[in-house]
Structure formats: structure tokens, C-alpha cells
Fold:
Amino acid sequence: MSMDAEWEVWRREWQSETAVRLDLRKIVERQSRWMRIALIADVLVTVVIGGGATVLAVRAPQPDMVVLAAMTWLFVAAAWTFALNANRGNWSPSALDTAAFVDLSVRRCRSRLAAVWFGAGLYVSEIAFCLGWIYRHSPEPRTPLWAWLFFGSLTIDVVWAATLAFAGALIWYRRRKRAELAWLLGLRGQAAEPVDRRTP
Amino acid sequence: MKSFTGTDAVSVDAGSSKVLERAALEQSFDRLLTANGPALARLAGSYTNTPSDRDDLLQEIAIAIWQALPRFRRECSERTFLFRIAHNRGIAYLARTRSQPPGLTEEIEVHDPAPDPESGLAQEERAERLRRAIHRLPVVYRQVVTLTLEGLGYGEISEVLGISESNVGVRLTRARQLLRESLENRR
Structure:
């Protein structure tokens, strides 16, 4: 069989599968709505948390409340700045050629891995500040710090449980991203190999 | 009675032009998917192991096309644009699921859409064997094969994958060899 005839037979066999069982238009419309909601939710969380702390500081303008509002905005600003910086240059149309897309995906993966460390650091700073602030405002006479931190109240126990869950999620996410990065680098390596080495 | 100002006219114009833009976008989207839906489904199937995974990936591809369509300035052909998106989503899917590392061979569950008339059975079996063989190819070869089978020439494949035309040729030669061996071994 000639080479062209062989391709022609394969092409007919390959194209014999013609079923598309999904209503793609409906799916796209539903997904677009969710994406808009997710974007609004990000902004809403920022406004509610930052705005709430500001309202508290305005209603009771004591130095501690001002510090609380200022630190809240500082944490929010740090999170947004990091997120925007990490994504700078990583956003681009999905219609890049495949080689460029693999490069972009490698950069995205590395950004996400850096974000894991940033997220952990930010979380520890926030928890340290919040616990310090709450302890300072706990009623006199205060229990010793270590006892307050570990057996102080159900709320504090919930904070530690949330911290453990957050740490677990970060470890899982980091493993996943490292595996993704390894796979992408493997693919990039394969694609970049000199063609003559792969041709017998 | 409310008077109609120049500002109102501008906002009505802007509003109606947005509606028109949206309608044009929806029309293009529908046209592209009607013309290329089966090809996109086949490409999605080459990256996944089961029909339900294929459908999930096809949804991702459709969403990516919908998002990219407003920025499509016809620097390349529509097919190049669509197949770039399809392959990029496929790679992102494989990276995420790592369901099939490059080069790994495994059995897959292939969707069988054909009714089952006796006359078409042998042909359907051959088609299924081909799909399995293609699925067993390493990703870099699988891409050139699927694009060739969709009828793209070297120039278009090189635009989709971002490699030179000579590289397309070399990959295709090697891929054909692997494909033949795979089909003969499983005969």
C-alpha cells in the first residue's frame, strides 16, 4: 500500500467517529456565569473583610481598632499584590501554539509553587497577629499564654484545626503542582530533543 | 415627559452595539462548533481514557474557545485557532490528571458511537484499533498524527504546534512507523 493510500485509509477510519453528545452552548453559558460569580466573590470577600474592619475602627476609634483595620488592609493588599505579580506575563490567550503553551504552563506551575510558600507565610502572619490581638483583649486576669493558646476556648481549638487542614491542603496542592511541573518539563524535553536522535 | 438627551443616545448605541457583538460572537461560536465539533471531540478523545473524560475535556475546550473567540483577529486560519486551543487544553488536562505520562502504553476504553449493523462491524473494529494505537503513541507523535488525520497540512500543523515544518515531517515519519508497528502487533 502506498504511503498516501495508507494515510487515506487511516483518515477514513479516524473520521468515522462523528458523535458529539453534549450541548456545548448550554455548558459554556453555565460555566461563564459561574466564572463571573467567582470573580465577584473574590472582590466581595476583600470588601467585606477590609470594609468590616474599617467600619469597626470608625465606630470605635481607639488605637487598637485602627491597628486592626490597618493590618487587615495590609494583609489584603499583600495577597492581591502577590496574586497579580505572580500572574503577570502568565496570562495570555489560549490560542498560543502548543510549544509556547507548554512554556507558559511551566511558568504558571512555578508561580503556583511560589504561591504555596507565600500563602503559608501570609497565613502564619495573619494567625499570629489575630491571636496576639485577641489575647491582648482577653479579660483580666489573663491566663498564661500557652494555656490560653492550647486549652483557652473552643474558638482557639477551631483555629488550630483550621490551621492543620490548611497545612494539609497546601502540602497536597504543592505535591500536585510539583508532579504537574515534572510532567510538563518531561514533555518539553521530549519536544525539544533534536529530531535526528529520535529517528532510527 | 422624559426628554431624550445626547448622553442617552450614546448609551443606547453602546448597549445595542454590545448586544450585536454578543449575537455575532454566539453565531461564530455555533458555526465553528457545528463545523468542527466532531473533530474537536476526536482530538479530546486522543488525550483521555474514557468517554466521560473525553466529554469533560470537550467542555473545557468549548469554554476556552468561547473565551478566546473575542480576541481572535484572524492571524491564522479558524482551524489552526481551534486545534491550538484543543491541543493546549489536552496538554493541560494531561498535566493535571497525569492519566497517561508521555510514552506510557495502556489499555483504553474507546467510545463506540456506531449503531451496530453487521456490515459496518469490521470497519468499526478497525477504526477502534486505530484509535487505540494512536492513543498509545507518545504525546508529541500523537499530536502530529491526529492533526494529519484531521486533514491539516505540514504548514498548518507547524502553526498549531509551534515547530518547524521539517520537524513535523520527521515526527510524522516516526509516528507512522510506530503506528504501523502498533497496529501489526495487535492484529
About this structure: Chain A touches chain B through 46 residues (CB under 8 Å).
